Amino acid sequence: MMRIESRLAQIGSVRDSVTGAVSYPIYQATAFRHPGLGQSTGFDYARTKSPTRMVLEEAAAELESGDAGFACSSGMAALQTVFALFRQGDHLLVSLDLYGGTYRLIEQVMSRFGLTASYVDTNDIAALEAEWRPGSTKAVLIETPTNPLMMITDLAKVSEWAKSRGLLVIVDNTLMTPYFQRPIELGADIVVHSATKYLGGHNDVLAGLIVTKGKELSERMAFLHNSIGAVLGPQDSWLLMRGMKTLALRMERHQENALRVAEYLLGHPLVEEVYHPGLPQHPGHDIHRKQSSGNTGIFSFRVKDARLVEPVLRHVKLIAFAESLGGVESLMTYPAVQTHADIPEEIRRAVGVDDRLLRLSVGIEHSEDLIEDLGQALERAAREIGA
Question: What share of the chain is helix, strand, coil (3-state, %, to 5)?
Answer without folding.
Answer: 40, 15, 45
